[in-house]
Structure formats: C-alpha cells, structure tokens
Amino acid sequence: MSLVAKPAALLQQLETALNQPRLARLKNAIFVLVLIHYWSRLYSKVVVRGPTRAAKDAYAYCLKLFFKQLRRLPSVQAKIDAELSKTLKDLEHSVLSREGNTKRYLALPKEGMSKDELRENLKRFQAMEDVDWAGGRVSGAIYHGGDELSDLCTEAYRMFSVSNPLHPEVFPGVRRMEAECVAMVLNMYNAPKTGCGVMTSGGTESIIMACKAYRDMAKDLKGIVDPEMVIPETAHAAFMKAAGYFNIKLIAVPVNPVTMKADITRMGRAINRNTIMIVGSAVNFPHGIADDIVALGKLAKRHKIGLHVDCCLGSFVMPFLEKAGLPTTRFDFRVDGVTSISCDTHKYGFAPKGSSVVMYRHPAIRKYQYFLCADWTGGIYASPSVAGSRPGALIAGCWTALMTIGEAGYLETCKKIVGARREIQTGIAGIPELTVLGDPVGPVVSFGAKEPINVYDVGDKMSKKGWNISALQNPPALHVSVTLLWVPSAKQFVVDLKDVVAGLVADPKSGNGNTAAMYGTAATIPDKTIIEDVAAGFVDLLYKA
C-alpha cells in the first residue's frame, strides 16, 4: 500500500468507527447537551434582563468581539494608541498641573529634613487643594465631624500610632476598642445576640470579605464550585471587584426604571443552584435609593442563600431615621433573611478614613471570612480580613469618634443631613428641566435632565461655580451626597442650580464642557476596553512622582 493510500485508509476506518450506532448516539447526546447549555444561558439572559436588554447585550458583545479582532490590525492599533496618548497627555496636564513646578523628591534625602523644612513641605502639599471642601461644596468624599472631633481623633492616633491589632498580646487596649466598635455598630443595626462582625479598612473591603465568606461557605456546605451572586445593577462596584478577585459569576439585574429599586421578580429569576448570595442596598451610591430589603429577605429565605445589605453609605444616617421621625424603610437585622450588613464608620460615623464594619447574623458565617493557616513554617497564622498588620491608631480614632458623638449626636446630624437633602430635592423638583431619580430616603439625591438640556453640562457649569458633584451614567445623571459640611450650603446650591439651568435654557450651546464631552464620547464608543485603557492610564498617573 502506498504512503498516500495509508492515511486515506485510516480516515475511512475512523469514519466507519465514528458512524457506529453507539458512537452516533453519543455524538447526538453531546450535541444536545451543548445545545441545552447555550440555550439555558440565552434563556436566563432574556428572563433576567428582558428581551430588549438581552438583545442589546448580545449586540454589544458581538461589537466587542469585532473590535477586539480589529485592534489586532497594526494600523488600527496604531491609530488607537495615538488617540490614547493624546487623551492621557490631557489627563496628565489636568492632574499634575495643580501641583505646580515645585521640587520633587524621587530618592531618599541624604540627610533627614529638619522639622521646619518638613512642615513647610507639608503645608505646600496641603495648599495644592483647590476645592473648597471646608465650605461645604464637595459631594461626599469628606465626612468631617468638626474641628474638635478631628483634634480628639488626632490625639488618639498619636497615642496608638505604633499599635497593631495583629498582636493583641502586645496591644490589648486596641483589641478591646476594636471589639467595642463592632459591638456598638451591631447594636445600632439591631443585631441578634448571635450577631458578630469585623473591622475593615473601608466599605470595599467589608463587601469583598462578605463575598469571600459566602463563596467559601457555599463551597464547604453545598459543594458549589461555580459560585454566582445576584445584584441589582445599582449595587456598589465593590461587588464587581469581589467577583473578579474570587472568581464569582456576577449577575447584575436591571432595576425598576421609575423607582430605581431592585427588581425583585427579575432577581428571583436570576437565582439558580449556583447562587451563593443576593444583594440589596440601603442606600445605593448612585441614586440614594433603599432597595426593598424585606422582599429580598423573603427571596433569600426561600432559596436558602445569603442576603448582604450594603449600608456603607447609609451608615450612621439610616439607623437614626426612625428615631428622627423621618421617612424610612426596614433594612437591618430585624428583617428576616438579612445575613450580613456592611457599614462605614468613616463616612457618617465621622471616624478617620480607613475604618468600616462588616456584620454577620451568626459566627458560623463570619468564620468563612477568616484566613487560617495551621502549617505555615512561621507559625499558626490567622487573619480576620485581607490585611495582616493593621493600624491600631485608626481603630483608636474610630472608637474616639463613636464615643464622642454618641447616639444623641448622630441623631442630630441625621436630622440636619437628611433635612438638607430634602431641601435640595425640593429645589430640584421645582426646576422643570430637571427630574429627581426615584424617591431617596437617606443622605443622597440624584437628578437627570430633560431634553434638550444635557445634565453633564449642568454639572460642568456647577463646577465652574465651585461645586464638586458626581457624574453618573446609565442613565446620565448627577448626584449629591450631602455631608454635615454641606448643610449650610444647601440653599445656595439650589440658587446656583436654578441659575445654571436657566442659562442653558437661554443658550444651550453654552454647555459642552469636559464632563459632557467625556461621557458623551464614552457613550458612543462601542469598544469599552478603550475606556478601560483610559481609566488605567488615569490610575497610572496617580503614581507619577
């Protein structure tokens, strides 16, 4: 037999073997399984997101694949790189121009600085701040409880500046203060006797650790190796970060377009045998809306999964609404089905930046948050959260803030902050060209604009008047997170807002500022990886000395 004939004969034998009845049935079975797999994925997409959103998602996915292949062409990538370079140059100028042409330190000084020289440099860095945050013109970001409290927290920080809760035998006082901070927040959120928690570095870490706990618990108790979590699309980006870190499939469900609350029906449809947790917010970051936690609790109980309530932003405002006689909703551990809550002490608790609390209904859940290693050569290692060493000084500062302000103080700040938010909301509602999104209950209000007004133009013009407010997308909007500093400025904000909108109505072409241009361009770019490249470049700039 010739060499050419041998492969042909082998192929014929292989074809004959594959056409055997048993193998044919196996092939058909595999084909059916593959078909069912992809059909179920498509069906779940349509059921959860709706036919229109699912079609848009499919279109966006196809475009993403197309542009990914297109970017492989050297000429296309070169053009994109040139545009990115130009954009990043503009960003660099925007970020670094505020610092001025001052001396930069790129290596350790040969000799240490004198105290006077050091203080001069620190004052120079402080002078780079060009936003009037002390005058109450910054949305969120700075949760200042007053100069007297800041001085006390600074004193506490100084006393415990070398402490580290990793060594409780060396710093028993820090251990005690941390435990008491957790206990106070648990009490505030009406935790049961079994309630427990951990202090973290901030809301993002609190959320990440809760997701880690549910993932590990589901794997241990249910054998789930392909975990999924279901969140409303308004939930904090920290849940997306946790999904990326811990390989959890994230299912983001569209919210009700009128109330901006989690769509309970759609979230229920998204739950399957791999779902480890669902999420609700009280309140969410974008719009200040509290989801229907009672309904989510029933959903979690029915499916025997965890429900995490993100109260990082609502923190020390939401628990005092009821006592203040203000409109509220049920959101804490009194709701059956709530198994964990995150609360930032460094927001409306006015503690120094770098402290938050994640709470659990029972220690049986919390233990899955821990990292435990019994056979490390360095000894038995146990850590409650991501960090090993932690600054005990921040714990001391947090304890100081909670003990200084107390329940009466937080009740009073709740009244002031929510009162200012309601004043701003009423002012926005009185401007025909603007519309308030949903019905906020906490410290945040968001608003969009009616055509032909571009809401981002409103934001840019308010920025020129000295206001620093946050831009949102999907849908385009702006939001104000009212702080204690903002309270005296509420009336002036409404006055300036009316003036800005009136100016845009009279001359729509007077807009087209940086934010409008950026978000307008982002909305028209089908390949979102380009936007991610710009975002990565921005983060790179933060580390340019």
UniProtKB/TrEMBL annotation:
The modification N6-(pyridoxal phosphate)lysine is found at residue 347. It is found in: Endoplasmic reticulum membrane. It is a single-pass membrane protein. Pfam families: Pyridoxal_deC (PF00282). Pathway: Sphingolipid metabolism; Lipid metabolism; sphingolipid metabolism. GO terms for cellular component: endoplasmic reticulum membrane. InterPro entries: GrpII_AminoAcid_Decarb, PyrdxlP-dep_de-COase, PyrdxlP-dep_Trfase, PyrdxlP-dep_Trfase_major, PyrdxlP-dep_Trfase_small. Coiled coil: none annotated. GO terms for molecular function: pyridoxal phosphate binding; sphinganine-1-phosphate aldolase activity. GO terms for biological process: carboxylic acid metabolic process; sphingolipid catabolic process. Keywords: Endoplasmic reticulum, Lipid metabolism, Lyase, Membrane, Pyridoxal phosphate, Sphingolipid metabolism, Transmembrane, Transmembrane helix. Its cofactor is pyridoxal 5'-phosphate. Its EC number is 4.1.2.27. PANTHER family: PTHR42735, SPHINGOSINE-1-PHOSPHATE LYASE 1. Belongs to the group II decarboxylase family. Sphingosine-1-phosphate lyase subfamily. This is sphinganine-1-phosphate aldolase.
